[in-house]
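Progress against Task 2.4 (sequence-to-structure conversion) is shown through the following example record, which the project officer requested during the mid-term review.
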Amino acid sequence: MKQKKGITMNEEDVKQRIKDYQQADGVKPLLCGLHSKHEKLYPKVLEQGLVLLCPNCNYTQTYIPDLFFDDGFYEWLRGMKRLI
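Structure tokens generated for the chain above:
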């Protein structure tokens, strides 16, 4: 379980939210911190917890933006996906 701003969420739930975000049209995807031309980052649960990985190099981002813990944002994102 991961906790942000008093909210406890299952890492798998947050992982799914990130996947949904990365697949959505009309949002700025999370990209590699070393090379912005690399493919989109993908979430993975490792020993240290949930991280974002670059599929093209060894870049690992341990910071997960707070918006993925925001139910209102996720409802908005799901609404966007229904419109497409």
